[in-house]
Automatic annotation (TrEMBL):
Coiled-coil intervals, chain numbering: 198-225
InterPro entries, A to Z: BphY/WalK/GraS-like, CHASE3, HATPase_C_sf, HATPase_dom, His_kinase_dom, HisK_dim/P_dom, HisK_dim/P_sf, Sig_transdc_His_kin-like_C
Protein name: histidine kinase
Keywords per UniProt: Coiled coil, Kinase, Membrane, Phosphoprotein, Signal, Transferase, Transmembrane, Transmembrane helix
Transmembrane segments: 175-199
Gene that specifies this protein: cph1_2
UniProt signal peptide: 1-21
Gene Ontology MF terms in the entry: phosphorelay response regulator activity; phosphorelay sensor kinase activity; protein kinase activator activity
Organism: Sphingomonas mucosissima
One BP annotation, GO: osmosensory signaling via phosphorelay pathway
PANTHER family linked to this entry: BACTERIOPHYTOCHROME (PTHR42878:SF15), TWO-COMPONENT HISTIDINE KINASE (PTHR42878)
A Pfam family: HATPase_c
Enzyme Commission no: 2.7.13.3
Catalyses which reaction(s): ATP + protein L-histidine = ADP + protein N-phospho-L-histidine
Length: 485
């Protein structure tokens, strides 16, 4: 709403500005036209003055031939007149009627200048009588009336133009003030509207701030309650996992013990069957022989394999449960040294497979739980070495950087890769992806994600089949007390 008001006001003021600029231009143009008219009138008056000055000086020289000041005045007027004519012609070049008047005027002036020149030359030569006779016959008075009539026509023409231009100038001035008043009213309306909108917006903002504060307070209480509930649920799950795994172990131990007794009994039974084959083959059936020598050992082998697998799963659940109950101990970690120690612990396996583990750049500083970080990096690096591509040696790269209050660590490999459809399931407990040709129970990545969450971080995966995998671990640069709880 506020932005719309400001936009409309801005456009309105912009239009008013353009209108004011246009009106100002028109006013300047009309003012220039008026000034031009006055300049033309002044030029007409100046030209008329020089013509009459020259005529007056000539007549004075005729009456007083020995007076040089009349001759000087005549010469000054004669010299200045061509310049005045030229200026007048230039000032009226765009007015055809004035140009026609000037052409008529110039014709009279050429004749008058010729007669004046003859009169002055005769007087200078001492022929004053001939000069006066010539003056009497040239009809100067009639010619002067015609010249004055031309000047009067030119003056009336300029007066008419002046009246028109004055009216135009008055209209421009009126329009200019009208635009100023409209612009002022518009500006006042926009300012008042904007002020009202700002006041309303400020009120709404204050109300929203109060509501937000109340919501934050209630949200904090909800978060505290939910966090407490989650903590209790997590503790309950951990206790449940511990109890379940502990209770599962008891019957599993019995099964494993009875399996051992079955193996011993099977061995005795097999010896008895072999003895019976030698001493009394007629009493031994094929089914009895097959059961003692093949079926029972095979069944016992399946039972032992299953119990061993179940034992490993129970141990894994117990390990996860213990990790959930372990108190985190933040400390400053040297990740470069930690990766080097993990590499040294895997030196024998690296030599056998020709694998390489490299650190790219410098790893960021991190304050977190040493055991948890070691377990995360060990799991990721061991998986990278384990799930190698059959056509190339393993290359593992560990990199990282800091950004704000968080750090990220990436473990990349060139192994077999993980199908994008399995990117989420590989983090689930007991879930694996791809060909199961390596030992494992599908616990490692679930353990990694659980540890990352406990440290206040996340772990994500980028991978495609045949193109390797990149695990990205994001953690707070400093593990806080809230995250430890």
């Amino acid at each position: 709403m506020l932005i719309a008001f400001m936009a409309v006001g801005f456009l309105a003021l912009l239009a008013a500005g353009f209108a004011a600029a246009w009106v100002t231009g028109e006013l300047a143009k009309h003012s220039q036209a008026v000034s031009h008219t006055y300049e033309v009138e002044l030029a007409i008056a100046d030209t008329r003055r020089l013509i009459e000055q020259g005529e007056t000086a000539r007549r004075g020289y005729l009456l007083s031939p020995g007076t040089p000041r009349f001759l000087e005045a005549y010469n000054d007027a004669a010299k200045a007149l061509p310049r005045a004519e030229k200026k007048l012609r230039q000032l009226t070049y765009d007015n055809p009627r004035q140009q026609a008047h000037i052409r008529k005027l110039e014709q009279h002036l050429r004749e008058l200048q010729t007669l004046r020149g003859q009169s002055v030359e005769l007087i200078v030569a001492g022929k004053v009588g001939e000069a006066r006779e010539l003056f009497q016959t040239e009809m100067s008075s009639a010619r002067f009336r015609e010249v004055r009539a031309v000047f009067d026509q030119m003056t009336r023409e300029e007066r008419a133009l002046l009246a028109i231009r004055d009216a135009q100038q008055e209209r421009s001035i009126s329009l200019f003030y009208t635009v100023l008043v409209v612009a002022g009213l518009l500006l006042a309306a926009v300012a008042i509207s904007a002020l009202l909108v700002v006041v309303r917006y400020t009120g709404d903002l204050a109300q929203s701030r109060e509501q937000l504060q109340q919501l934050n307070e209630s949200l904090e209480a909800i978060v505290v309650d939910r966090t407490s509930d989650l903590s209790r649920a997590n503790d309950e799950i951990q206790r449940f996992a511990y109890i379940v795994s502990h209770d599962l172990r008891s019957p599993l131990v019995n099964v494993m013990g009875f399996t051992a007794e079955l193996e011993a009994a099977t061995a005795t039974l097999r010896e008895l069957v072999e003895q019976a084959e030698q001493d009394a083959p007629d009493i031994l059936t094929d089914d009895a022989r097959l059961a003692a020598q093949e079926d029972l050992p095979e069944a016992i082998g399946f039972i032992r394999t299953s119990t061993q697998k179940m034992d490993r799963l129970i141990n894994a659940i117990l390990a996860l449960s213990r990790q959930g109950r372990r108190v985190l101990a933040p400390e400053t970690l040297d990740l470069m040294r930690m990766v080097s120690q993990i590499r040294d612990s895997m030196a024998h396996r690296l030599d056998e497979t020709g694998a390489r583990i490299d650190v790219v750049g410098n790893l960021p500083a991190l304050v977190s739980d040493r055991v948890a970080i070691e377990q995360i990096l060990s799991n990721l690096i061991e998986n990278a070495v384990k799930y190698r591509h059959p056509d190339r040696p393993v290359e593992v790269q560990v990199s990282g950087a800091a950004g704000g209050d968080r750090v990220w660590i990436e473990v990349s490999d060139n192994g077999r890769g993980i199908d994008p459809r399995d990117h989420e399931r590989v983090f689930d407990l007991f879930r694996r992806s791809g060909t199961q040709d390596q030992p494992g129970e599908g616990i490692g990545l679930a353990h990694v994600r659980a540890l990352a969450y406990r440290l206040g971080g996340t772990i994500t995966l980028r991978s495609a089949l045949g193109e390797g995998a990149t695990f990205r671990l994001s953690l707070p640069s400093t593990l806080s007390l809230q995250e430890k709880s």
